[in-house]
Amino acid sequence: MKAESGYNRTENKKRERTYQAKTDRGEATRQKLLLAAEEVFGEKGFHGASIVEITLKAGVAQGTFYLYFPSKETIFEELVRELNHDLRREISVGVSGAKNRQEAEERGFQIFFAFIKEHRNLYRIVQEIQFVDEELYKWYYSKFAEGYIEGLEKAMAAGEYRYLDPETVAYAMIGVAEFLGMRWVLWQKEDIPPKALSAALELIMGGVLPRQ
Amino acid sequence: MKAESGYNRTENKKRERTYQAKTDRGEATRQKLLLAAEEVFGEKGFHGASIVEITLKAGVAQGTFYLYFPSKETIFEELVRELNHDLRREISVGVSGAKNRQEAEERGFQIFFAFIKEHRNLYRIVQEIQFVDEELYKWYYSKFAEGYIEGLEKAMAAGEYRYLDPETVAYAMIGVAEFLGMRWVLWQKEDIPPKALSAALELIMGGVLPRQ
Question: Is the ipTM above a cut-off of 0.90?
């Protein structure tokens, strides 16, 4: 894999470490700061956001912030990591009981749209990453692609899906989800309409199911 | 259509007006400024870019800038409009001779990937629009979607494609193109590999062609 590759596995590993606080109370404060950061970064953008505003919104003394995060960059990175982790976990739990890959795909899409509805600021935050930390931006999407590729490879090996380059299918599907979420959940501030969800699923299943 | 709708047609119409200079020489200067702006915005981002740097790169006196654009915001908007217009025109010319919709789809994708290779800064610029002017961001994608929807409706009416909500298909396809372009052309700094292009086209055609 070349140096300018899409992502860097060592980098990914480094980013996997968790920064959990040592006590429950500490963890609660850390979560309060992350929640406030999600709001402030989402509304003001990275450059417009300030640590003062984050601590005010979290109801935490400014000095306390630095017990958890050395800088605005660090809390931004942690927030991105947590949102990525939470969304992947929700999808993984949600699709685990699906009776086949088609049902898993459907549930995965629904969970994604429900998640971004609850975390409207996610789009702004994710798209701003590239202007703050480009490697983190690549990491964000390649983390999703990794899990997706695994699921696709299994479905292809089992003959549930026809064989198409799995990485291409993974990025294509992520693109579909992101753009439909943007069009309806973000712009229209409403749930994705049933006709759009069903059209998207028919489109995808037509693309990946074996030819009759 | 609600007020918070995806885009606003009146706004779109307003944005359609052209700001062409009155003389050929004036138009050449304007184009030099836009070309320099594309580089500077792409490298520095909107906030990091300065009018001084744009005029230096264009080899134009600073005062001249204001004969063409009243502000940094204006040249940014003009640049976005021109890139959008040029890309749509290239696709439209490129697909006009296609013998069927499938060939048109294939050419459209190839032209899109070739265009972003020539305009690498396009991604950064487009994704930064939402932090500068959110309506312009919606306009950028809805302009593409409009043309795509028209083509899809024709193909569906002619029975070339099966019927699936055309707006959903349009945004889904734009998402596929953007994410594959991001993964390879932008991150990998190379052409999209033939296996990815063919997988994407098979995926899409499987999704849109009538069921056998």
Answer: no
